[in-house]
Amino acid sequence: MAAEAEKRVSPATQHLFADKDRIWTAEEVQAATGGEWVTPPPPGWAASGLSIYAPACQPGNMAVVRSEADESGMPARAALRLVPPPACLITTDPAPLLHSGLPLLKISEGFTAIINLGRYARDQIRGKVLGVTGSAGKTTCVAMLADALSAWGASSKSAHNANLPRGVAWNLASVPRDTPHVILEMAIGRMGVSSRMARPDIAIFTNIQPAHLGENSTVRDVALTKSAIFFGMQPGGIAILNRDMLEWETVHQAATAKGLSVLHYGSHQSSDARLIAYDALQQRVTAEVCGQPLSYSLAAGGRHMALNSLAVLAAVSALGYPLEPALARLAGFTALAGRGEQKRVTLNGTGFELIDDAYNANPGSMQAALEQLSERPCSGRRIAVLSEMKELGPESEGYHSQLAAQLNDSSIDGICLVGAIWQGCWAQLKPEKRIALLDDPQQLKPLLLAQLRPDDTVLFKGSNSTGLHQIVSWIDGQPGAL
After folding, report:
1. Of the candidates 244, 352, 238, 354, which has an alpha carbon nearest to the alpha carbon of residue 304?
2. Domain at 341-476, CATH homologous superfamily
3. Mean pLDDT in the chain?
4. According to the model, what pLDDT value does residue 261 have?
5. What average pLDDT does this structure show over 456-473?
6. Whether pLDDT at 13 is above 80
7. Which of 229, 261, 401, 450 is 20–30 Å from 29 (CA)?
8. What are the C-alpha distances in Å from 56 to residues 92, 154, 198?
9. Which CATH number among 2.40.160, 1.10.3470, 3.40.1390, 3.30.420 corresponds to the domain 2-112?
10. pLDDT greater than 90 at residue 206
11. Would you state the CATH architecture of domain 125-330?
């Protein structure tokens, strides 16, 4: 391994990044981690950020390398194969890396070092930090908010869905410290650690759904755990809450107990950013935001996107900015891959519209996706291909069965369900809407080849772990797919 590294690393390749991205000095890295330089960096050394995942490593990043005793970070072999090589290696076991030719920092424990780098970075950030949590819509809201705030200068957002404490630290440690707006996705796992590290100035709560449920946990438990996003906030900070969400009272109480100022968005009459109407055909929103009447268009379709846009506008208003530049940005924002992206594809010579919402699913996001499909203008058939919604606890089968009523009342023409959990739903479906009940997503391949017609619109929606996204990737890989 050492010989391989010596062949690949040369001093000339160690700093291939712009001066503006020189975030970390050697002294700061040592102070933040409490580590010891085994191989000190050369004079004038700097790093552009942190990486704990080799495929996401950027030029000038420091690489945290796992060891046999500490699994935090990337494998040593992956770190040594990076081109350009990382600015330094950080590890609890430097011995195998002594001949890497790279600066080498020894730390006592990986997780703690990563979190401390995030905390140190947060102390240096001079812009506003906005945290986004919720059971669904976090990633889209983060992306939409970052895009809207770019009207007032650079914005940095969470990369690679890194939304647990190590990922939040990785993102914080990679942000230029003069960035005006830092938008972080923050997931339920160890939320208190993430919040006390990130210390959001503004927290956005998209919704609460029956997701991440165990055998004995409840939706209220989810709300309480996610409300830990407020733990790191100062009194007078701003909480932006979906007024229509489940367990609103629980979340609102947690925010006010922390002394936060609360803004609401949604269709509820008391919302500060209130949805008055949504025209699905025109993708046009009628709303009132902090007393200002608005009518605007969205490039991303669906009522849930309209609600996301109101969360964004509430944040823009809370920051003291005028709404018009943000509205111009919203008009061009499109849905993300795996989260509602719409594209024209071809399979076996048949052209159709594909809606890729196969990254994740819970009852709320499933209902929103089905509503969007039902209301979408379509010259062919509307078809829903649905796989299991995971982590719904002991009531999982019921949550799946309850969707039958919405499917039957919708304008969706055909329904294909994947997984035994859907049997109750399948039994309740109108016969004319049934296409197939399958055991495995791979069974979709011959079915789609045989069943699709020109100009159909097909929604793929399910939890990532079901593998439904692999079918979308297979379609994308077909000749003429894009």
Report:
1. 244
2. Mur ligase, C-terminal domain (3.90.190.20)
3. 93
4. 98
5. 96
6. no
7. 229
8. 21, 20, 21
9. 3.40.1390
10. yes
11. 3-Layer(aba) Sandwich (3.40)
